[in-house]
Amino acid sequence: GVVVPAVAAMPPVSELSFRRAIINLADAGRLGEGEDLNDAILDFFIRLGQHLIPQGGDVSAPVSYLGSIFWKQLRSAFANSGEEGWKNVQNWAKRKAGGLFKDTYGAFAVPINEDLKDDDGRDAGNHWWLALVLNPAGGAIKEPMAVMCLDSMQRRTKKFDEPLMSDCVGCFHRYTLEVTEVEQAGYLIVISFDARGDGSFGPLQRPEKSQLLVDGYVCVDPSLGLKINMPGDDGVAGRFQGTLTFAMDGRCRSSIFELRYGEEGFKPIKIEFDPFQLTKLQKDVSRFLGGYLAKEWDMNGPNKGLRFEKQSARALVADVHQQENLNDCGVYVLENTLRSLRLKRTFLKTMAEASSQVLSSYPWPTQKDITARKLKLKGIVARLFAAAADKGITDVERLLKEDAQLKEEVLQSLTEARDSEVDKFAENLQSELARRTQDKEKETAELKRKEEIVLARREEERLKREEEARRLEEERLERKRGGPPRKAEESRKAKGKEKKRPSGSSEGSASRSPRKSRDKAKGKRPSSESEGSRRSAKSKRARGGGRGRRNRDPSSSRSRSRRRRR
Length: 566
Fold this sequence. Notes:
Blueprint: E1 15-18, E2 21-24, H1 25-28, H2 39-52, E3 63-65, H3 70-74, H4 82-85, E4 107-117, E5 123-134, H5 138-141, E6 145-150, E7 155-167, E8 175-185, E9 188-197, E10 211-214, E11 217-219, E12 223-230, E13 238-247, E14 256-260, E15 269-272, H6 280-300, E16 313-317, H7 329-340, H8 345-351, H9 356-359, H10 367-391, H11 396-402, H12 404-414, H13 419-481, H14 488-500, H15 504-522, H16 528-550, H17 554-565
Parallel strand pairs: 3-4, 6-16
Antiparallel strand pairs: 1-2, 4-5, 5-6, 7-8, 8-9, 9-13, 10-11, 10-14, 12-13, 14-15
């Protein structure tokens, strides 16, 4: 018979590549249960998503991505700002056709790998979270811009200066409980407590039986960390001091909890957190990215004549679902980035204006979603390695071009049907923006009304000042003419009287003539004063005449004769 030569099997491949993103078998192992995702897996699948998820491929991707180590490189060489750090990554954005500010981009995704520290300042591992810069060009074109921090392990702490107190009912305050501090790290709630009993009612209740009520469900079986472990007994005092750590459902959004200590008897303690705030690193990320974008716009922006306002970015913490283990933070970053690639550019830009309340209604991934995504990625990686070994091709882009079925399988591993949930969120967002527009119009109208009131008051004060200046000027002119200063009202009255009076002499004669006529009618002399004056004049003339005969002066006689002739 014919001997068929055996076909040599292709040797297995040890790595896969897609557009300079490379993963090996060790990286693929990071998709296993209890493993942390690394930067290689992030870059590989996000770039695959940019290529496959948008209908137009990479050129129409709504989210820009410069790599998982971009943030680390931006902060290198002791850079103190985004402008200084720009030189460390100045060529990274040039690899993107059209740059970071291309019209198709509505967001810029930056994975952050944070170094964690414990209470003693020692290394406590690393943690991934995503900074999503919404509307990156907004700082130059005067549009809303935001740096949204998507952290699946949010942290907050609250210390009570006056401890929260409780006691056991019926024990006459001899069995007490104090809560001094509460901390949240993602899905974990850590409560610092101090329980005491004097032994008069037996041993102190064990803390392991405590419960935490939140969002309508009960967290049980807390982890216990004790510094003092003295249960006590009849007549023997007991004390437990340490921490209770409860594991919550990652979908919990509440900031209010109720602690029930022990099995029974102790009064519940209500514990309330403050809302999540930006951490120091999150503030630094927002500041650095704002500075980097300002420098990138200045050097490579489409319109360098416009000034990029780096302070225009609104930093905010989105209230996302929390991971329910200590390993899946990287998968959350990947999932959030892949989901953003399904959104429209205009939608991403609009999200920059959304409030924290509306953002909390967005269909953020849950722990269940993350577990399912991780299984899908693990399966598709195995499929790609098998296809690469079968065809002897390690370039995944070539594999997908040659195998449409494989391309569809990869796409399905990166997406899922969530359009209805996103559409519902879009409706909520549009409704909020519409209400905000109405509120802004009302606010503008109210501001306009207040401005009109202020302007009217200023006009009134101006008229008063002018009137006062006019009065002072009239007084000055009065003093200059030599007369005493008169008030403006008296001056106006005097002027009015002068206008009514025809002439001073005629008025005087008219006023005197009636009196003379009355005097004549009564046979009276005009005036006693005038009569006395005439008598005095006669006596003087008589005396003067006597003396004049003895000492006659010709000139004086002539003067008298002239007066008589007159």
